[in-house]
Design brief:
The protein is an alpha+beta fold. About 55% of the residues lie in helices and about 10% in strands. It is built from ten helices and six strands; from the N terminus they run H-E-H-E-H-E-E-H-H-H-H-E-H-H-E-H. Strands 3-4-2-5 form a four-stranded antiparallel β-sheet. It has a two-stranded parallel sheet with strand order 1-6. The longest helix is centred in the C-terminal third of the chain and has 29 residues.
Length: about 300
């Protein structure tokens, strides 16, 4: 499909305008970066706690934020998870920057987030939450109640049954059972087992899918490695282009890539966006596409 025919634009004649635009963007980004003192790094690079939570029905984000604020976590970052296939996902990510020093501070942050969620969205009963129980505790409860009337012949039957129930909960129900009757989908589970589980446990309104804790040392190490990866990629491209074309072409290509990356980082600083591992991957993608275009242009120059 061809939209334009015989396009003839004097790009080089307008080069000075693009140079002015590029220098202006670089200057704005540099001023913003200097004024802020540093880029806004995410938890990946500065340490903290990330909790992935799935709700039975998504409550308003403001309600979640209010719950966290009641525990002194008003500065937490709350992000809803969604994609094209499931735009109405009932999952959120809660991020908390590290407060204090040492691993103890990270553990306290995790415990405080969970306490805030349980206080507002926990089970409406004093019973333990089935969505948070592990297989060992569930097996002990079933053995004690003995709903199948196995007596001393129970052996490992309840251990295996507990494993099947928790596997069904975590894999098939995505960590959240909303009705005990859903457990009947597990082979060997009937009314007696469902009643025994219901007698001992309640169903909460949310389930913690995963918890990630990043220490400050690990965050600093990731930050250094991200810088090194970017510099190594640029150095490798410089060597390749210098060998494939000419040394001056390689230097020009690296300068052009630095230009693209620095302008992008300037926008991140200006709009106070977080720098995370995903952003680093995006920057490396930007480097790759920029270098690909540069190599295509150099080939055309050499052919001409």
């Amino acid at each position: 499909m061809e939209f334009f025919r015989e396009v003839n634009i004097d790009w080089m004649g307008k080069a000075k305008y693009f140079v002015i635009l590029s220098l202006s963007l670089l200057l704005i980004g540099a001023v913003s970066w200097y004024h802020a003192g540093t880029l806004r790094y995410g938890i990946d690079f500065k340490g903290g706690t990330i909790v992935y939570v799935r709700f039975a029905q998504m409550p308003p984000i403001d309600e979640i934020r209010k719950s966290l604020a009641s525990q002194g976590l008003g500065d937490s970052v709350i992000q809803r998870i969604g994609d094209i296939a499931n735009p109405n996902s009932d999952e959120v990510v809660i991020g908390l920057d590290q407060k204090g020093q040492g691993d103890e501070a990270l553990d306290v942050g995790k415990a405080t987030i969970l306490k805030a969620l349980r206080s507002s969205f926990g089970a409406d009963s004093a019973k333990p939450d089935f969505n948070a129980v592990d297989a060992a505790d569930l097996a002990e409860s079933l053995t004690r109640q003995d709903p199948l009337r196995l007596g001393t012949a129970a052996g490992d039957r309840y251990t295996e049954l507990a494993r099947q129930l928790t596997t069904y909960r975590d894999r098939d129900r995505n960590g959240l059972v909303t009705d005990f009757n859903q457990l009947k989908n597990v082979a060997g589970v009937g009314d007696a087992v469902v009643a025994a589980v219901g007698n001992q446990y309640a169903l909460g309104k949310f389930a913690v899918r995963n918890v990630e804790i990043v220490g400050p040392k690990v965050g600093a190490q990731l930050r250094r490695q991200a810088i090194y990866v970017t510099l190594y990629a640029l150095a490798g491209m410089l060597v390749y282009i210098a060998f494939r074309f000419e040394w001056v072409y390689g230097a020009a290509a690296v300068v052009a890539v630095f230009h693209d990356v620095l302008i992008t980082l300037g926008f991140f600083s200006l709009f106070k966006f977080e720098i995370s591992l995903t952003v680093i991957a995006a920057l490396l993608t930007l480097v790759g596409y920029s270098m690909n275009d540069t190599i295509v242009i150099f080939h055309r120059i050499r052919e001409n």
